[in-house]
Structures are given as C-alpha cells and as structure tokens.
Amino acid sequence: MGFEVGQRLHIPGKRLPEWVTVDFAQAAATGWKLYVKDDDGAFHPVDLTEAEAARVIVVSEDGGGDSARVLAGIWTQWMRAAGVNADATGPCVGTVAAVCASVQRGLWSNAAAAAPSVLTRR
Fold first, then answer.
1. Strand partners for 24
2. Contact 103, 94 (CB under 8 A)
3. Which residues does 62 contact at the CB level (< 8 Å), separation at least 6?
4. Confidence class of residue 94 from pLDDT cuts 50, 70 and 90?
5. Which of 43, 70, 72, 75 is deepest in the core (most CB within 10 A)?
6. Is residue 91 scored above 60 in pLDDT?
7. Whole-model pTM above 0.70?
8. What CATH fold (topology level) applies to the domain 8-58?
9. What span, in angstroms and rounded, lies between the C-alpha atoms of 47 and 50?
10. Which of 22-26, 62-66, 67-71 has the highest mean pLDDT?
C-alpha cells in the first residue's frame, strides 16, 4: 500500500480524528512515516508498520455513489449551515432539511433531489 499527499484517510488505532488528510508521506524501512492534517488544520505525525498501513481506509472517487443521496447530503449540510449562520432562515430551513433528510432515507423519489417542488412519495 502507498500513500499520496492529499489523500483522505481513516487510520484506526492511532488516536486521531476519524478522517485526516495526508500532508507528507514517506516509505520507511518498517512501514510509513506520515504527517496528516485534521479538519481543524492541526498536524499529526504518524508512524505506521506495514500491517497498520494495510488497515488504513483511503477515500477514493469510484463513481459508484448514488447521486441523489450525495446531492441530498450536500443540500442538507448546506441548509444546516445556513440555519446556524443566518437568523432569517428559521422555518424554511427546518422544512427543507426535513425533506432532504427524507430523500437521504429513500422516502422520496430521485426527482426530489433534483427539484424539491416535484416531490413524489414512494
């Protein structure tokens, strides 16, 4: 297994946040020396044996995701952030977030993710 700058990783058993980004990676005689950055921008040095490196989960773009679920997740996070960051979004955000959450759970058709005004119940 190899590591590259910019990869998103989950490194089990190392007391790190759930997901980190590789900032530096170098193969060593016994495994890997990594410097990873968490989502808050803090750096963490990580030494991995070959066995530990084999257990690392690397996020990759495989094109296999359900686009409606991805869109619903992005929309939900956007609306959640809008609710926190703007006082004027009150009742609307709750309604839209509830609809998006329903889309994520598969309760509405894929049309809901593309155009929330044409919701059709499954």
1. 35
2. no
3. none
4. low
5. 72
6. no
7. no
8. OB fold (Dihydrolipoamide Acetyltransferase, E2P) (2.40.50)
9. 10
10. 22-26
